[in-house]
Amino acid sequence: MADVLTVDHLQKKFGKFQALKDITFSIHPGEVFGFIGPNGAGKSTTIRTLLGILRPTAGRATIFGQDAWADAVSIHKRIAYVPGDVNLWPNLSGGEVIDFLLRLNGQWHTARTDELIKDFDLDVSKKARTYSKGNRQKVALVAAFSSQADLYIFDEPTSGLDPLMEEVFQREVLALKQTGKSVLLSSHILSEVERMCDRIAIIRQGEIIEVGSLAEMRQLSRSTVHVTTQQPLTGLKALPAVHQFKAKTPTQAVFSVDAEAIGQTITTLSRLGITQLTTTPPTLEDLFLRYYNQEGGKDEQ
Question: Could you give all domains of the chain from N- to C-terminal order, each with its CATH number?
Fold first, then answer.
Protein backbone atom coordinates (compact mmCIF):
# COMPACT_ATOMS: atom_id res chain seq x y z
CA MET A 1 0.00 0.00 0.00
CA ALA A 2 1.12 3.56 -0.75
CA ASP A 3 2.37 5.70 2.13
CA VAL A 4 -0.22 7.96 3.71
CA LEU A 5 2.26 10.81 4.04
CA THR A 6 5.58 11.46 2.31
CA VAL A 7 8.00 14.29 3.03
CA ASP A 8 10.84 14.62 0.51
CA HIS A 9 13.78 16.94 1.31
CA LEU A 10 11.50 19.63 2.69
CA GLN A 11 13.00 23.06 3.34
CA LYS A 12 11.52 26.27 4.73
CA LYS A 13 13.12 29.71 5.06
CA PHE A 14 11.83 32.78 6.87
CA GLY A 15 13.93 35.51 5.32
CA LYS A 16 17.54 34.58 5.98
CA PHE A 17 16.64 32.09 8.70
CA GLN A 18 16.33 28.49 7.52
CA ALA A 19 13.88 26.75 9.86
CA LEU A 20 13.84 23.48 7.90
CA LYS A 21 17.04 22.36 6.21
CA ASP A 22 16.31 18.82 5.08
CA ILE A 23 13.23 16.92 6.25
CA THR A 24 12.55 13.48 4.76
CA PHE A 25 10.28 10.79 6.21
CA SER A 26 7.11 8.85 5.41
CA ILE A 27 4.17 7.40 7.33
CA HIS A 28 2.76 4.00 6.43
CA PRO A 29 -0.94 3.06 6.61
CA GLY A 30 -1.96 2.08 10.14
CA GLU A 31 1.25 3.43 11.67
CA VAL A 32 1.75 5.68 14.70
CA PHE A 33 4.76 7.82 13.82
CA GLY A 34 6.59 9.80 16.50
CA PHE A 35 8.21 13.15 15.72
CA ILE A 36 10.51 14.32 18.51
CA GLY A 37 12.91 17.16 19.14
CA PRO A 38 13.27 20.14 21.50
CA ASN A 39 11.52 23.47 21.09
CA GLY A 40 12.85 25.31 18.05
CA ALA A 41 14.00 22.16 16.24
CA GLY A 42 11.36 22.54 13.51
CA LYS A 43 8.55 20.18 14.55
CA SER A 44 5.69 22.68 14.40
CA THR A 45 7.05 24.33 11.23
CA THR A 46 7.07 20.91 9.56
CA ILE A 47 3.50 20.20 10.68
CA ARG A 48 2.24 23.62 9.51
CA THR A 49 3.80 22.90 6.14
CA LEU A 50 2.05 19.53 6.02
CA LEU A 51 -1.25 21.26 6.82
CA GLY A 52 -0.80 23.70 3.93
CA ILE A 53 -0.48 26.68 6.27
CA LEU A 54 3.11 27.34 5.18
CA ARG A 55 4.44 26.97 1.66
CA PRO A 56 7.75 25.08 1.45
CA THR A 57 10.81 26.88 0.12
CA ALA A 58 12.05 23.66 -1.46
CA GLY A 59 11.19 19.98 -1.43
CA ARG A 60 7.72 18.50 -1.36
CA ALA A 61 5.19 16.98 1.02
CA THR A 62 2.29 14.78 -0.10
CA ILE A 63 -0.64 13.39 1.88
CA PHE A 64 -2.84 10.68 0.31
CA GLY A 65 -0.76 11.22 -2.83
CA GLN A 66 -1.80 14.89 -3.05
CA ASP A 67 0.40 17.96 -2.70
CA ALA A 68 0.15 19.34 0.85
CA TRP A 69 0.17 22.96 -0.38
CA ALA A 70 -1.78 22.83 -3.65
CA ASP A 71 -4.41 20.31 -2.50
CA ALA A 72 -4.79 21.41 1.13
CA VAL A 73 -8.58 21.83 0.95
CA SER A 74 -9.29 18.28 -0.22
CA ILE A 75 -6.65 16.83 2.13
CA HIS A 76 -8.23 18.51 5.15
CA LYS A 77 -11.45 16.59 4.58
CA ARG A 78 -9.59 13.41 5.51
CA ILE A 79 -7.44 14.54 8.44
CA ALA A 80 -7.95 15.53 12.09
CA TYR A 81 -5.52 17.97 13.73
CA VAL A 82 -4.88 19.05 17.31
CA PRO A 83 -2.27 21.78 17.99
CA GLY A 84 -0.34 22.23 21.21
CA ASP A 85 -2.19 25.40 22.17
CA VAL A 86 -5.87 25.42 21.25
CA ASN A 87 -7.76 28.71 20.84
CA LEU A 88 -11.56 28.49 21.03
CA TRP A 89 -14.49 30.83 20.40
CA PRO A 90 -14.86 32.42 23.86
CA ASN A 91 -18.67 32.85 23.87
CA LEU A 92 -19.46 29.28 22.79
CA SER A 93 -19.77 26.43 25.26
CA GLY A 94 -17.40 23.50 25.04
CA GLY A 95 -20.18 21.34 23.63
CA GLU A 96 -21.03 23.93 20.97
CA VAL A 97 -17.37 24.15 19.93
CA ILE A 98 -17.12 20.35 19.62
CA ASP A 99 -20.27 20.20 17.48
CA PHE A 100 -19.07 23.09 15.31
CA LEU A 101 -15.66 21.50 14.73
CA LEU A 102 -17.35 18.23 13.73
CA ARG A 103 -19.76 19.96 11.34
CA LEU A 104 -16.87 21.81 9.68
CA ASN A 105 -15.73 18.38 8.45
CA GLY A 106 -19.22 17.20 7.56
CA GLN A 107 -19.55 15.02 10.67
CA TRP A 108 -21.91 14.93 13.64
CA HIS A 109 -22.11 14.53 17.39
CA THR A 110 -22.58 10.82 18.15
CA ALA A 111 -22.66 8.47 21.13
CA ARG A 112 -18.91 8.13 20.58
CA THR A 113 -18.58 11.89 21.22
CA ASP A 114 -20.49 11.57 24.49
CA GLU A 115 -18.26 8.68 25.53
CA LEU A 116 -15.14 10.75 24.87
CA ILE A 117 -16.54 13.73 26.79
CA LYS A 118 -17.03 11.44 29.78
CA ASP A 119 -13.61 9.80 29.46
CA PHE A 120 -11.85 13.18 29.28
CA ASP A 121 -13.93 14.44 32.23
CA LEU A 122 -14.96 17.60 30.36
CA ASP A 123 -17.78 19.92 31.45
CA VAL A 124 -19.16 20.92 28.04
CA SER A 125 -21.73 23.33 29.50
CA LYS A 126 -19.12 25.94 30.44
CA LYS A 127 -18.16 28.80 28.13
CA ALA A 128 -14.84 28.35 26.35
CA ARG A 129 -13.51 31.59 27.86
CA THR A 130 -13.61 29.95 31.31
CA TYR A 131 -11.55 26.93 30.26
CA SER A 132 -8.00 26.28 31.40
CA LYS A 133 -5.38 25.29 28.83
CA GLY A 134 -5.95 21.63 29.66
CA ASN A 135 -9.70 21.88 29.10
CA ARG A 136 -9.17 23.65 25.77
CA GLN A 137 -6.96 20.72 24.74
CA LYS A 138 -9.70 18.31 25.80
CA VAL A 139 -12.25 20.04 23.54
CA ALA A 140 -9.96 19.66 20.51
CA LEU A 141 -9.09 16.07 21.39
CA VAL A 142 -12.75 15.05 21.79
CA ALA A 143 -13.57 16.58 18.39
CA ALA A 144 -10.56 14.90 16.75
CA PHE A 145 -11.18 11.44 18.19
CA SER A 146 -14.88 11.75 17.27
CA SER A 147 -13.94 12.35 13.63
CA GLN A 148 -13.71 9.62 11.03
CA ALA A 149 -10.35 10.63 9.56
CA ASP A 150 -7.65 8.73 7.70
CA LEU A 151 -4.74 10.64 9.25
CA TYR A 152 -4.58 12.19 12.71
CA ILE A 153 -1.95 14.87 13.34
CA PHE A 154 -1.17 15.73 16.96
CA ASP A 155 1.30 18.52 17.75
CA GLU A 156 2.11 18.38 21.49
CA PRO A 157 -1.55 17.43 22.15
CA THR A 158 -1.26 16.60 25.85
CA SER A 159 0.23 19.94 26.82
CA GLY A 160 -1.70 21.05 29.91
CA LEU A 161 -3.26 17.65 30.63
CA ASP A 162 -2.78 15.82 33.91
CA PRO A 163 -1.26 12.30 33.90
CA LEU A 164 -4.68 10.63 34.07
CA MET A 165 -5.87 12.43 30.94
CA GLU A 166 -2.57 11.60 29.22
CA GLU A 167 -3.45 7.95 29.82
CA VAL A 168 -6.85 8.48 28.16
CA PHE A 169 -5.14 10.12 25.18
CA GLN A 170 -2.68 7.24 24.82
CA ARG A 171 -5.47 4.69 24.99
CA GLU A 172 -7.41 6.47 22.24
CA VAL A 173 -4.35 6.67 19.97
CA LEU A 174 -3.74 2.94 20.38
CA ALA A 175 -7.43 2.34 19.55
CA LEU A 176 -6.97 4.31 16.31
CA LYS A 177 -3.96 2.16 15.48
CA GLN A 178 -5.98 -1.02 15.99
CA THR A 179 -8.54 0.20 13.42
CA GLY A 180 -5.82 0.86 10.84
CA LYS A 181 -5.65 4.65 11.14
CA SER A 182 -2.40 6.56 10.71
CA VAL A 183 -1.12 9.00 13.32
CA LEU A 184 1.62 11.64 13.33
CA LEU A 185 2.48 12.47 16.94
CA SER A 186 4.81 15.30 17.85
CA SER A 187 5.54 15.16 21.56
CA HIS A 188 8.14 16.17 24.13
CA ILE A 189 6.94 13.40 26.47
CA LEU A 190 9.35 10.65 25.46
CA SER A 191 7.62 7.93 27.49
CA GLU A 192 4.43 8.73 25.56
CA VAL A 193 6.19 8.30 22.23
CA GLU A 194 7.98 5.16 23.41
CA ARG A 195 4.72 3.50 24.43
CA MET A 196 2.71 4.25 21.29
CA CYS A 197 4.88 4.77 18.25
CA ASP A 198 5.91 2.19 15.66
CA ARG A 199 8.66 4.38 14.24
CA ILE A 200 10.30 7.63 15.34
CA ALA A 201 12.00 10.56 13.62
CA ILE A 202 14.42 12.71 15.60
CA ILE A 203 14.76 16.30 14.38
CA ARG A 204 17.64 18.59 15.29
CA GLN A 205 18.13 22.15 14.01
CA GLY A 206 15.80 21.67 11.06
CA GLU A 207 17.19 18.32 9.95
CA ILE A 208 16.08 14.71 10.45
CA ILE A 209 19.03 12.97 12.08
CA GLU A 210 17.51 9.51 12.56
CA VAL A 211 14.39 7.62 11.47
CA GLY A 212 13.50 4.08 12.50
CA SER A 213 11.80 1.83 15.00
CA LEU A 214 12.87 1.98 18.63
CA ALA A 215 14.28 -1.55 18.27
CA GLU A 216 16.40 -0.47 15.29
CA MET A 217 17.69 2.58 17.13
CA ARG A 218 18.52 0.51 20.19
CA GLN A 219 20.77 -1.68 18.04
CA LEU A 220 22.83 1.45 17.37
CA SER A 221 23.09 2.41 21.02
CA ARG A 222 24.35 0.98 24.26
CA SER A 223 22.96 -1.08 27.10
CA THR A 224 23.74 -0.40 30.75
CA VAL A 225 25.37 -3.28 32.64
CA HIS A 226 25.51 -3.78 36.42
CA VAL A 227 27.83 -6.64 37.34
CA THR A 228 29.39 -8.32 40.37
CA THR A 229 32.10 -10.92 39.91
CA GLN A 230 34.23 -13.21 42.08
CA GLN A 231 37.52 -11.90 40.67
CA PRO A 232 38.55 -8.23 40.25
CA LEU A 233 37.29 -6.47 37.11
CA THR A 234 40.78 -5.51 36.00
CA GLY A 235 41.20 -4.72 32.31
CA LEU A 236 37.47 -4.44 31.56
CA LYS A 237 37.61 -0.65 31.31
CA ALA A 238 40.14 -0.91 28.47
CA LEU A 239 37.81 -2.88 26.17
CA PRO A 240 36.82 -0.78 23.10
CA ALA A 241 33.10 -1.57 23.49
CA VAL A 242 32.97 -0.55 27.17
CA HIS A 243 32.14 3.06 28.05
CA GLN A 244 31.49 5.14 31.19
CA PHE A 245 33.01 2.46 33.42
CA LYS A 246 32.46 3.13 37.14
CA ALA A 247 33.87 0.70 39.70
CA LYS A 248 31.98 0.55 43.00
CA THR A 249 34.36 -2.06 44.43
CA PRO A 250 37.15 -4.12 42.78
CA THR A 251 34.52 -6.76 41.89
CA GLN A 252 31.46 -4.57 41.30
CA ALA A 253 30.91 -2.05 38.53
CA VAL A 254 28.41 -0.33 36.25
CA PHE A 255 29.15 0.58 32.63
CA SER A 256 27.59 0.89 29.20
CA VAL A 257 28.43 -1.42 26.32
CA ASP A 258 27.84 -1.27 22.59
CA ALA A 259 24.84 -3.40 21.60
CA GLU A 260 26.79 -5.56 19.16
CA ALA A 261 29.40 -6.40 21.79
CA ILE A 262 27.17 -7.52 24.66
CA GLY A 263 27.78 -11.23 24.01
CA GLN A 264 31.53 -10.79 23.82
CA THR A 265 31.54 -8.68 26.99
CA ILE A 266 29.51 -11.26 28.94
CA THR A 267 31.93 -13.98 27.80
CA THR A 268 34.78 -11.90 29.21
CA LEU A 269 32.91 -11.36 32.47
CA SER A 270 32.10 -15.07 32.81
CA ARG A 271 35.81 -15.83 33.08
CA LEU A 272 35.83 -13.64 36.20
CA GLY A 273 33.00 -15.61 37.82
CA ILE A 274 29.73 -13.67 37.53
CA THR A 275 27.69 -13.62 40.75
CA GLN A 276 25.19 -10.95 39.68
CA LEU A 277 24.43 -9.42 36.29
CA THR A 278 21.72 -7.12 34.93
CA THR A 279 21.60 -5.48 31.51
CA THR A 280 19.19 -2.65 30.67
CA PRO A 281 18.49 -1.61 27.06
CA PRO A 282 18.51 2.13 26.34
CA THR A 283 15.26 4.04 26.74
CA LEU A 284 14.02 6.51 24.17
CA GLU A 285 15.27 9.28 26.46
CA ASP A 286 18.75 7.74 26.43
CA LEU A 287 18.70 7.57 22.64
CA PHE A 288 17.38 11.09 22.31
CA LEU A 289 20.05 12.54 24.59
CA ARG A 290 22.76 10.59 22.82
CA TYR A 291 21.77 11.95 19.41
CA TYR A 292 21.53 15.48 20.79
CA ASN A 293 24.95 15.21 22.43
CA GLN A 294 26.59 14.25 19.16
CA GLU A 295 29.23 16.68 17.94
CA GLY A 296 30.76 16.25 14.51
CA GLY A 297 29.19 12.82 14.13
CA LYS A 298 30.85 11.39 17.26
CA ASP A 299 29.18 10.92 20.60
CA GLU A 300 30.82 11.44 23.93
CA GLN A 301 32.60 8.47 25.40
Answer: 5-215 (3.40.50.300), 222-281 (3.30.70)
